[in-house]
Each structure stands twice: as structure tokens, then as C-alpha cells.
Amino acid sequence: xxxxTGGFASLQCAGAMHVDKVHMQASGLPFLSFRxxxxxxxxxxxxxxxxxxxxxxxxxxxxxxxxxxxSALSSLQDDTTKFVDFVVIGSGVAGxxxxxxxxxxxxxxxxxxxxxxxxxxNYAQGGVSAVLCPSDSVExxxxxxxxxxxxxxxxxxxxxxxxxxxxxxxxLIAMGASFDHGEDGRxxxxxxxxxxxxxxxxxxxxxxxxxxxxxxxxxxxDDNISLFGHHFAIDLLTCQKNGEIYCYGVDSIDIETQxxxxxxxxxxxxxxxxxxHIYPTTTNPPVATGDGIAMCHRAQAVISNMEFVQFHPTAxxxxxxxxxxxxxxxxxxxxxxxxxxxxxxxxxxxxxxxxPLYDDRAELAPRDVVARSIDDQLKKRGESYVLLDIxxxxxxxxxxxxxxxxxxxxxxxLDITRQPIPVVPAAHYMCGGVRAGLQGETNVKGLYVAGEVxxxxxxxxxxxxxxxxxxxxxxxxxxxxxxxxxMVDAADDADAGAAxxxxxxxxxxxxxxxxxxxxxxxxxxxxxxxxxxxxxxxxAVMWEFVGIVRSTARLKQxxxxxxxxxxxxxxxxxxxxxxxxxxxxxxxxxRNLFCCAKLVVKSALARRxxxxxxxxxxxxxxxxxxxKPTVIFPDAVQxxxxxxxxxxxxxxxx
Length: 654
Known about the structure:
Layout (H helix, E strand, L loop, with lengths): L7 E5 L8 E3 L6 E3 L1 H8 L19 H4 L16 E9 L3 H10 L5 E4 L16 E2 L8 H11 L6 H20 L14 E2 L9 E2 L5 H14 L4 E4 L2 E11 L2 E11 L4 E12 L20 H8 L4 E2 L4 E8 L20 H5 L3 E3 L7 H4 L8 H15 L4 E4 L5 H7 L1 H9 L9 E10 L2 E3 L11 E3 L4 E2 L12 H11 L1 H25 L15 H26 L3 E2 L1 H24 L9 H22 L8 E2 L14 E4 L16 E2 L2
Parallel strand pairs: 4-5, 4-12, 5-9, 10-24, 12-19, 18-20, 21-22
Antiparallel strand pairs: 1-23, 2-3, 6-8, 7-8, 10-11, 11-12, 13-18, 13-23, 14-17, 15-16, 16-17
Helix pairs in contact: 3-6, 3-13, 4-5, 5-13, 7-17, 15-16, 15-17, 16-17
């Protein structure tokens, strides 16, 4: 067992945790029992184991933002403390789909740090994978998922998701989501890397945007849901009772009014997305700063598999465009997996096809294989991008299937029907996260997770293309009934003691001239400037030392440099008058980025093998003894850094 200091009671990986192994039914493939591992290793876990086309019109943001329905006013008490049955953190597919179900049973507040549509869902191009063709099967989808996941997936989770997925897609269609159909009138099913069948339901190359549109429209029509845009979640509100940790809501910053708003709830669903911005180049929107994972870690939730960061092989390389963008993008423009699935071929800049040299599946290999192959080509040849060519396909089909990509490239002087697309890997998806059971439950009572923030066991060591939206839909729906049950059980306690409980947690404060020792705007400007520089430095360290190919020496170097960087940043803040209870969006994002970066590095150091997305030069092979998840248990004594401690102390409740 690896006993690690600095907030990790025990971080267990290869050879450190004894887990039963069974065989995958129907396919004969071995797998790791993720749920069994959870039962053996974790106490208090119970049974846990840009766009073209008018059809993508959004709900008016002026209408949606800060919407408070009349029927919910009795639950929302005042400007700074709001009492609801359910609070949902995040407005992507997982959060919205869950909210639409639990709103039938109580009041719901959705809080999101930017505009409601600004989520990873909105940027998902490819689609939703589901078995909807008679020639396909659940067993085939399962096998593809487990092979892509390097046999680290949990079979029970995989079977549930692959079995329930088709019904979840049909529900989206019933709610008004519009997907592409073929000439025969049936759903057009695309194929992507790692899939053995055509099973990707899509809306051209803007699937996430279409799903987000349909769900936001449904939320807008639901009188029991209140949506709070531009609210940044700071920390979960927890207390300990009878040896269990309970979650009672979350503190947030209303970015527009610059007030701290406290949401007290019977149930909290965290669906806040991933942490792509721990790296300098990511396909994730600016909101993806690991807030949910960091908040849960500070609240003593169990974290798992953080070493498995998926780098999408094909983000648009601005350097290779004929007309360069005039400003740096906040997030890289994604070139969907479906381009390779539709026949796209990868070349180096000498127009030499290289993928068959690395894998028999060539361009249809899973993402981890393709990303490492591109990385190897770039390093060997000293080049900064490779080329993805789809120009040999019929022009009308390319434009019909990839209108968004075609339009973006054409804006920069490149016609994808005639020229290859310059591409480079970019951070894309966190396969690890907050450890969740089969119903999205965590070891913190009243706290559920769904979407990219969660680690359900589905993805294993590498996510299969288009399984992310599928997982979000399935687990958002599975979390509904246990959430309702918990709300009913908690109703008596919450109704009697919610107001006194809300007042017991100290309130975070916003910086002011007086609070910053009279330094006023100058001190705050210095803090903001230093924070931005520190953020860029952290991202550079993560890319250089914790990227696609790793080594023990580089990981230890990253651990040392991140620790020093964090200490220096915090010391700078406190010298300028910043107090541990102070909050600001950029400072809080920075503490979350530090927290997530350290979780990734610690997890990577613990895995002494190469599996899926984690490739290390010191242990370049798969080890059967390593076919176990990395688990980060909460420590009774947290790290002594600001990023690792919740702003509020954990209460003791009766």
C-alpha cells in the first residue's frame, strides 16, 4: 500500500489493493470489479460499488438567466441564502437532465458559473453512442468500451450504460432533440475510433449544442426549476453526524452582484464537468477548471483514477492555418473523432501516412493510441502539427456531416474539401473524478455526481469515443430515485433545522480595500495579475512533465515544482492582505487547478505500469497486478495549503 503524505490517507494502485477478478460474460474478457473494489476498500460507501444552421437557435439567455419562478419563491428565501429541495451544480447534459426529473418532486436550483449553455456538453461535436441498429448488440458495445478502457472498466457499470443508453437517447428525441437521419428516414449512425459498429447518434458535428438547446428549452418551461447563471461554486457545506459526512448545499459567488450566495438543500448533484484547464491547450471551455473535483476532495469525498487524462488526438492547430487567428483561443477548436470515422487519414507534414505503423486499426484506433502516435511523430520530426485529410470524400457529404468544422476552417483560409486539416493533441476529458456508485452516490451522504466530474468505472483507463454524453444521460437518470428517497428521509431534519444550520457555517468574504490593508484596487490588481501568471506557469508544468508521455523523474519534478509554486502564490496573496476566508473567481479557480493538478500527479506516480491514457517510460508495459483503480481516500488531516482545505470547517451535527 502506498501511504502518501499531504492529504492522501492512502492512495492505492498497482499491487496495493486486493480485488476479486471475474470474467466478462458473453465476451470472455476479464475486467476489474470496480464496485467490489469500492466495497472492499472504502468505508461508508454503502452499495457503491462554432456553428452553422438555424436549427441550433438557443433559448434567450436574458430570459433564462437568473430566472426565478413564482412557484419556487417560497423556497428561495432572500438574496444571500436560498433553501431548495435539490441544488444542481452545472448546466451540462447531466445537470439539466437530472433537474428535469427531480423537479417533479421538489424545488430545484441550477447554478452555473457562466451562461447556462457554456458547458462541455455544448462543445461536444461527435454524438451519443447507443445500440440502435439491429446488427449491433449490447455485448459488442460493451466489448468496445472495455477494450478501449484497457480492461480497467467495471463490467456491471458498462453493462448498465450500454443497456440503458438507447432508452435515454429516445427520451432526448421525445423532448425535442433533433438528430440526423439518413435517406431511409432512420437515424443516421456514424462510426468513430474504437467502435466496431456504426452507433453514434449525432446532429451534424454539433450534437452537444443540439442536446443542450433541447434541455435548456425544457428547463425554461419547468416552473419548479430556477436557474442561476454566473454563480461560481466555492465549497460544499458539510457536517459530520454519527460517523457519516453529510452535504447540505454549497456556497457560491454571484459574479454579477459580487455577493456570496448560500444554497441550502436536502440533496446536491454535482455535474460541473472536468479540469481541462490544468493544461495550456484544451478543447474544454474556460469554465472547466476542476471546481467540482476539488470541492469534493476538500469535502472528503473519495477520488479515483485521476491519472487518466484523455488528450484528444485532433484539435485544430492554429499554427498550421493559412490565416492565423488574431487572438489566442480560450479553448482549442475540436476536430471530431467522426472525421476519422468517416474515412479521414492522418499524415505527417511530408504527406506520409503514419498510423498503420503504430496500430493495425490505423486511424480507427482508440484515442490514447492515436494521441501517442501523433506525439511520437511530432517529437521525432520536430514538427508542431500533423495533417488530417478528408478531402478524398465527396464534397457534399463532407459539408453535410461537418458543417461547423468546414466553416471554422474556411474562416481561416482552409477548405477541408480540398486541403488537409492541421491538427495537434489537446487535453480533452478526465476519465477519473469523484468516485460514484451505480446510482451516482458518493461516500458523502446527500451528494451525488454525474458526468465528467464523476468516476463511475465506465471509462476505465481510456474513454471510448462518444461514451461521455451517454454516461452523463444514464447516470443523471439513475441518480434521480435515490435522490428523491434521500430528500424524503432528510425532510424532517431539514425543515426543522435548515435555517440555524445555514447560519452556523462562517460566510466567505469578498476582498475590499479595507480588507486588503488599505491597498485597495492596487493590491487586488496585483493579486489578479500574479494569479494569472501562476496559472500559466502551472499549465506549462503540467504539459511539460505530466503530458501524453510521462516518466517518474518528470512526475516528481512536477510534484516539487507545483508544491513550490502553490506555496509562493499563497504567500504572495496573504502578504497582500488576502485572508483564508476571502473568495474571488480567479483565486478560487487557481486553488481548484492546484488541487486537481496535484491529484493527477499523485495518481500518476502511484501507477507503476502503462495503461490506457497513462504511459510512463519507466514502466512501459501493462501489468496484470496493475489492473486496479487508483483510489484517493480522504485524510483526517488535510494538507496545510489553502487549495486543499474547505473555507468552512466541517460542522458536528446531532
